[in-house]
Amino acid sequence: MPWPAEAVHRVIKAYDVRGLVGEEITDEFVADVGAAFARLMRAEGAAQVVIGHDMRDSSPSLAAAFATGVTGQGLDVVRIGLASTDQLYFASGLLNCPGAMFTASHNPAAYNGIKLCRAAALPVGADTGLNAIRNDLIGDPTDSAGSHAYDGPPGTISDRDVLSDYGAFLRSLVDTAELRPLRVAVDAGNGMAGHTAPAVLGPIDSITLLPLYFELDGSFPNHEANPLDPANLRDLQAFVRETGADIGLAFDGDADRCFVVDERGLPVSPSAVTALVAARELSREIGATVIHNVITSRAVPELVLERGGTPLRSRVGHSYIKGMMAETGAIFGGEHSAHYYFRDFFGADSGMLAALYVLAALGEQDNRPLSELASDYQRYESSGEINFTVADADAAVDAVLKSFASRIQSIDHLDGVTVDLGDDSWFNLRSSNTEPLLRLNVEGRSVEDVEAVVGEVRALIATVTAEKAGEKAESTT
Known about the structure:
Helices cover 38% and strands 21% of the residues. It is globular and about 65 Å long. Strands 1-5-4-2-3-6 form a 6-stranded mixed beta sheet, sandwiched between helices. It is an alpha/beta fold. Strand 2, helix 3 and strand 3 (76-82) form a beta-alpha-beta unit. The two termini are 41 Å apart. This is Phosphomannomutase/phosphoglucomutase. Residues 385-459 form the Alpha-D-phosphohexomutase C-terminal domain.
């Protein structure tokens, strides 16, 4: 039976499936998503699908329902059980088969979702499969996932533990043999890094692991597993200072993103991490391509050019960057949201691999602290991502552009609007692909320059929001 189009469109987003468990995401719906995915993959020649899940209470049953949908279409299922998202990508590459990861990443406990990939972790986004799955579910034959008819035998289900293989593979990509001793504080946020960090970092002799919130708990009892929100970094910052750690690492719920805190407990910009890793990658392959998204600091393309590489700009979102990684053969890609992509890791993102690169860079220093190392890659000041809940995103953006019109040097629309104000100041305004938000990022030479732009944009958005609220109130009276 087809699913209502409105319900399907609400949960099948630009690069994943995500929604409220029990209301938007149910076992029955997920079983049909699994069947549609299996039809699409079977048409492309796949014989099996690997499935992993995070620590949320709903994840095991949803993963089981998805497996039922897949096997019902004749494809085999390999279950890897509890996993980080990048561990699932590793399994997809190791087994050379499509994969499904059950997680809602940094979203609260009431949510869950599915990240899908083809064999070798190739992305499945809106234009590369999700629209076909969506149309299959609503009974639209246009660009559907394929025929619903299948009368062969069901597929089989087997289990495989890939955690130790995953850890060994990541360590094989970064030389950590000659590092100075490092005390490494890790805030897993009760998410999957509590499962993977010991397997990856534990065997490295020079590292003393200082764990914080490693207990797997999908209710997130200590704080949300979303390090992009500064409030969720406070415990790690205090922990670093209390323990005298050389570095702090914070991961989101599915541990595919990694945020870095220096020895003073101060955050290191993900753009600085992107520049640091890019420099290391370019040192072994001069001329290679490095991808960065539209909200990454301009220091990243500047450094890539200085190191003899080719910078390439992308929209925000893992499916877009992974697609570009595959198309261009880029050696590395970074996002300001702390997603980091590696050609050596099937072109997929891995927060744990990015952490290894930063640890290697720090461990090679002769007692130089992380704060000094990071300053080599921090050329500008930035606002970080600021989110606004707005009733009319287009009206808010239009108001901002009109107000800044006389100061705009250039503007592009690759992802939202990116506005160059000259004097090394710029801002990007874009609608979220996963949440009902308008996102602002500002960069400039000084904190004062950044704060001035943020203040002006904030006031303009507040004015438009108030006007829209007034119009709505009038229309209901």
